[in-house]
Each structure stands twice: as C-alpha cells, then as structure tokens.
TrEMBL record:
<dbReference type="Pfam" id="PF03572">
    <property type="entry name" value="Peptidase_S41"/>
</dbReference>
<dbReference type="GO" id="GO:0008236">
    <property type="term" value="F:serine-type peptidase activity"/>
</dbReference>
<dbReference type="InterPro" id="IPR004447">
    <property type="entry name" value="Peptidase_S41A"/>
</dbReference>
<comment type="similarity">
    <text>Belongs to the peptidase S41A family.</text>
</comment>
<protein>
    <recommendedName>
        <fullName>Probable CtpA-like serine protease</fullName>
    </recommendedName>
</protein>
<keyword id="KW-0378">Hydrolase</keyword>
<dbReference type="GO" id="GO:0030288">
    <property type="term" value="C:outer membrane-bounded periplasmic space"/>
</dbReference>
<keyword id="KW-1133">Transmembrane helix</keyword>
<dbReference type="Pfam" id="PF01471">
    <property type="entry name" value="PG_binding_1"/>
</dbReference>
<feature type="transmembrane region" description="Helical">
    <location>
        <begin position="54"/>
        <end position="77"/>
    </location>
</feature>
<dbReference type="GO" id="GO:0007165">
    <property type="term" value="P:signal transduction"/>
</dbReference>
<keyword id="KW-0812">Transmembrane</keyword>
<dbReference type="GO" id="GO:0004175">
    <property type="term" value="F:endopeptidase activity"/>
</dbReference>
<dbReference type="Pfam" id="PF17820">
    <property type="entry name" value="PDZ_6"/>
</dbReference>
<dbReference type="Pfam" id="PF22694">
    <property type="entry name" value="CtpB_N-like"/>
</dbReference>
<dbReference type="InterPro" id="IPR001478">
    <property type="entry name" value="PDZ"/>
</dbReference>
<dbReference type="InterPro" id="IPR055210">
    <property type="entry name" value="CtpA/B_N"/>
</dbReference>
Length: 511
C-alpha cells in the first residue's frame, strides 16, 4: 500500500535527471543548502518535499505498511488454515494446553510426544477402526505392506470394537501355515496383553527380525489358544497362475502396486495356452489399493464405465474405467471365488464385475468393508490414515457390514470353520461337550470313523482317537489330551493347505 508514495518520489527524481537538475539537498553544511527561494526559481515546476515533511511521511508510510502487513498476514493465515472461526476457537484451546504442558508442567515434557498424543487422541475419538495416526517407523511398515515386501507373519489385521482381529492370513504365509484364520481375535503377543493398544502398536509387536519366533494368543469362539509362528521375509505375490485342465486359476492375494499389470500379463499367457475359462480366486484377499481394483476391473469392463462410486455426504463421484478392456479377456468366461476373508478392494472388484454381468460369483459371503481410507504424510515421515468416504457398487449398492452374496454358494469344509479346542482340558469317554463335536468333525475330515457328529464322547470316538494316536506316534490312551490336540490341529492345517475343496467344487461346476 506504500507503493504510490514511493513511486511519486521516484517519478519526480527521474524528471529532475532528465532536465539536468541534479542537486544535493540534504547536506548538513548550511552553506551548501539551497534556499527555498533559490530552489523555487531554478525548478518551479518540480515536486518538492522538505526534510521534516519527508521524515514524517516516511514514518507514516512505514507505520501504515506494518499495520497493513500484519492485517494481511492474519487474513491470509486464516484463509489458508482451513479453519473457520469456531474451529479456530476450539483449536486455540488445544494450542494453549500444549504450551502450558510443554512450558509449565513440573516435569520436562517431550514436545513431539505431546503433539503425537494430541493427534492420537483426536483419531481415537472417531471410534473408527480404519483411521489411525502412524509414526515414522509405523509408516515404513505401512508402506512395506503396500509394496508387498516385509518381515513378519503375513496376517492382515484390523481393529474393531476395541478388539484386534485377523482379516485374513495371506496365502503361503507363516500365519496361514500355523493355522491362523479370518476373524481370529488377538489377545496377547509373546504372553503380553494387547489390551488398550492400537493396531500399529500390535503390528510392531508381531513383527521382528527374520528367523525369530512370536507367540500369538488368539481367541476363536470365546476360546483361547497359543500359536507359535516363525517370522519370515515375505514377498506377497500379487497374482499366481496355474492351469487346471482347461481352466485357468488366478489367485490374487492382495491389491498392491502393479497387481492389475500382473494379472493382465498372466491372462495373455493363459489365452495363448488356449484357456477360455478362468477363475479369479479372491479368497482371503484383504484388499489394498483402490486404484489397482479399478485398473483390474478395466481388464474386463468397457471404457468410461463406473467401477465404484465414492460418496462423501450428499456428493457422489464415479471412478470410471480409463481405457478399453483387454482384447484377450473378451472371449473368456470369468468366475470369481470369494469367502468371508475377501474384503475392501476385493469387494470393489467383485461388486463391479457382478453388476456388469462380467462374472459369476461363487463361494461364501464376503467380509463387508464399504469405506475408503485416504493418507496424509507429514514432513517428519509420520502419516495419518483416515476414512474419507464410503463406496458403492456401480448400481449403488452399499455393502458395508453386509458383504456381497455369491451367485452360487459353495461352502467351505466344516473342519475349516471349527472353533479352537482348548488345550488345557482333557476330553475322555463319557464326556458331553460342544468341543467333542468339533473333535468328531475334524477326525472325520482326516478319514477316521467317528459315528454321529454330536457332543457325546462315546466308544466310537474313543476308538478313533486311539487310531489317530497310533498313526502319529503318540501315547495311545483314547483320551483327547493336549499333545493329541496339538497334532490334531497340525494335521487339519496341513489338509487345508493341501486340499482345496472349494476350488475343486467350482472347477467341477465349470466342466
């Protein structure tokens, strides 16, 4: 705002230069100071300012500049802070509290810890299991998950209703091999309770150096059991392809960077092999990057078609396919296989394919996660992940908490849904207990004759337990004790990893 005044002085001075009227007017030596009269005679047409007036004007200009700068700074700060008056008033209390505790608390406080605690408090107040603040180290782990390379046990976890549970174990991971199942609730890590801890804190406890072991205490159907797992360096393969007769089976483990590109490459490979019927196996796929789900949908869905609709308040925005579908995929019959461990981006893809009749869905109802998270990374490497909106299928279906029902139901084997049998109790002939039925179902799956599937530990079951103990070099007692229980669980896990009854049933339907 002081520019007009300065420009006028410069302009008058420039005119003097052009006219050749260059005179020094601010010497202290009075003999060299021209009089006003002389000045008036020599340059009567030019703009003049006396020294005292010039000083006064300069001071006023400076004060005006300072005042305007202060007000402009405040206005700009308010404009770009993103806070309205009410929000600024609320935040001033937070800032005041921070300053008081940082400066006046009787014990010295770490300013970084204070600010992180404040952020964590705000996030926890949301009561949203999918929103969280991550430190620099936690952000590193998060980014490893997105890229697909990390050291751990390979179990996707979530926090809900103050409980941390397994969304799904990754295929071929140490967690899956050890028998961890979707919806298992974690209660302890290496004997230490995780009550009150955040998801990121628990993940940090579970992870560690390659080759070391971690013991998880999990609760399944209100019964706890310890599972020991060896940590490994894990590279999560996005897509695995195998040919089963004339059917191409694509196991999609997670939606990470380049998942769509990997699937596209494998589909072209299968097409060259003459494959025209494909199965996209999304069982226990916990989701991942939304943009990869959109790209993967675009392999099959026409250009400029909505894959997912993002809703925030009343506003709905469609995310459309950017390109034409893959030529090789056009003449393929597509089937999708899902279960209760298929979540998030898996459901985005499945919902789009189902709405456009591009695939028939088989298996069990999916997990039901219909909300989208966004991340904001800070300069210190920390990160905020928060739920920004919910998503709908192309036809406007909201699946959160409901899941997607398959077109054709294929149930998983009974033994894969068994509750943990407590290993601190011995079951024997004459007992009546709901766990006895689980023992019968499991032994029957392992090809032992158990008679009726009920809660009675009868002579038939005792005989089956004795046979199982003989076959596995265990003391033959006919009692289902801790040692027998552990071997029983191990054998069922081996069977689940070896035999894929759901996939076999689907392939049979496709022939």
């Amino acid at each position: 705002m002081n520019y007009p005044f300065k420009l006028e002085l410069i302009y008058a001075h420039q005119r003097n230069l052009r006219k050749g009227h260059i005179r020094v007017t601010q010497h202290n030596d009075e003999t060299n100071q021209p009089s006003d009269e002389q000045d008036s005679k020599k340059a009567p047409k030019f703009f003049k300012i006396k020294r005292w007036k010039f000083i006064t004007f300069s001071i006023l200009a400076l004060l005006l500049t300072i005042i305007l700068t202060v007000f402009a700074t405040i206005a700009i700060a308010h404009k770009f802070s993103g806070l309205d008056d009410s929000q600024r008033k609320s935040f001033s209390k937070v800032e005041s509290t921070y300053q008081t505790l940082a400066n006046d608390y009787y014990k010295k406080q770490d300013s970084e810890k204070l600010s992180e605690s404040a952020i964590n408090g705000m996030v926890k107040s949301l009561k949203d299991p999918y929103s969280q603040y991550m430190t620099k180290d936690e952000t590193k782990s998060f980014n490893e998950d997105v890229s697909g390379d990390f050291v751990g046990i390979g179990a996707e976890m979530q926090q809900r209703n103050k409980e941390i549970s397994v969304t799904s174990p990754m295929k071929g991971s140490p967690a899956e091999k050890a028998g961890v199942q979707p919806k298992d609730v974690l209660t302890k890590v290496d004997g230490k309770s995780i009550k009150g801890k955040s998801l990121t804190e628990v993940v940090k406890m579970v992870r560690g150096k390659e080759g070391t072991e971690v013991t998880l205490t999990i609760k399944r159907a209100n019964q706890e059991q310890n599972i020991k797992i060896k940590r490994e360096k894990i590279h999560v393969k996005s897509v695995e392809y195998k040919k089963e007769g004339d059917v191409g089976v694509f196991t999609i483990n997670k939606f990470q960077e380049d998942t769509a590109a990997e699937l596209k490459t494998n589909i072209m490979k299968a097409h060259k092999q003459g494959v025209r019927k494909i199965v996209l196996d999304l069982r226990n796929n916990p989701g991942g990057l939304l943009n990869e789900a959109v790209k993967m949908s675009n392999i099959f869905i026409d250009k400029n078609k909505p894959v997912v609709k993002l809703q925030k308040g009343k506003e709905i925005e469609s995310v459309n396919t950017p390109t034409d579908p893959l030529k090789e995929a056009k003449d393929m019959k597509v089937s999708i296989l899902v279960n209760e461990g298929s979540a998030s981006a898996s459901e985005v893809f499945t919902g789009a394919m189902k709405d456009y009749n591009k695939a028939k869905v088989y298996g069990e109802k999916t997990f039901g996660k219909g909300i989208v998270q966004t991340t904001q990374e800070y300069s210190d490497g920390s990160l905020l992940k928060y739920t920004e909106m919910k998503w709908l299928t192309p036809h406007g279906t909201y699946i959160h908490g409901k899941g997607i029902k398959p077109d054709v139901e294929i149930a998983s084997p009974k033994y894969q849904s068994l509750s943990m049998i407590p290993d601190d109790k011995v079951f024997k002939e004459g007992d009546q207990d709901k766990n006895v039925k689980s023992i019968k179902i499991g032994l029957k799956a392992l090809d032992y004759q158990v008679g009726k599937e009920n809660n009675d530990y009868d002579a038939k079951l005792k005989s089956a337990v004795e046979d199982f103990q003989k076959d596995n070099q265990l003391p033959v007692t006919g009692k289902f004790d801790k040692e027998t229980n552990q071997k029983f669980a191990e054998k069922l896990v081996d069977k689940a990893n070896k035999d894929d009854e759901m996939l076999d049933a689907l392939i049979k339907k496709l022939k």
